[in-house]
Amino acid sequence: LLANLLKVVRVFYDQGDPNLRHNLPGRPANDLLLAALFTAGWLAALWRLRDPRSRLLLLWFAIMLAPTVLSTKAPHYLRAAGALAPLAIFYAVGAGAIADLVRRAWRSRAPSEDHVRLAVIAAVLLMVVVVSGVSTTVDYFLRWSRLPELGRAFDVDSQLAAAETARRLQSAASDDALLMSSWLLLQPQMGFALGRMAASRALPAFAMDTTGIRMLRGSSDTQDSLALVWLERGQP
């Protein structure tokens, strides 16, 4: 439990989810600027613990992180997705706390200096949005999207096979059928691509030997068994 807790805490500073399906492997949830706002936010919430809103925010965040802290493969971004909303609020609370500190440290009765102070605060916060936005865009739309393993992580091979199966069945003669593994037939991509237009029948598994194809009778393993799929022309 403590090991999981440490891994989840590190998500917000230096080490994120390594699962390619969930994240650019290892990328933390925050860059340096967002980590500073996040830290200022939860420190401010702790400082104002008597305020019911601060207690609610801290409890909300902790409870939404519990699914990944209390399960295997931590950190797991999907199990921690409920923490996204309080995380965003922490950024805002941290930005407000930093702005309050700047206002208190830069006290002046001159109206012109007040405008300068507000302009500086606005510029710093805008810089955070721009820098973090550009960093996130580059990481996910350029670096992550170009990883060669990404398609397999999202089962694009099953999607391509399903699309090709539907295309071949549509163009096949009335008595033609396709042979595929039962595992592939049971994939949701195949069900979506074929809909109700196809019929299927399970077959025993086949194996290749030096003389060609021979049947292995009695196999019930869906990983090894095959299925014959054909188009039912009368179906809508």
Itemize the secondary structure elements and their pairings:
Layout: H1 2-10, H2 32-47, H3 52-69, H4 84-105, H5 111-144, H6 150-153, H7 156-171, E1 177-181, H8 182-185, H9 188-194, E2 198-203, E3 205-209, E4 212-216, E5 226-231
Antiparallel strand pairs: 1-5, 2-5, 3-4
3D structure, described in words:
This protein has 236 residues and is mostly helical. It contains nine helices and five strands, in the order αααααααβααββββ. Strands 1-5-2 form a three-stranded antiparallel β-sheet. A two-stranded antiparallel ribbon has the order 3-4. A hairpin with a 2-residue loop joins strand 3 and strand 4.
Topology as a string of helices (H) and strands (E):
HHHHHHHEHHEEEE
Q: Share of helix among residues?
A: 55-70%
Shape: elongated
Unreliable sequence segments: 207-220
Structural class: mainly alpha
Strand order of the main beta sheet, please?
Answer: 1-5-2
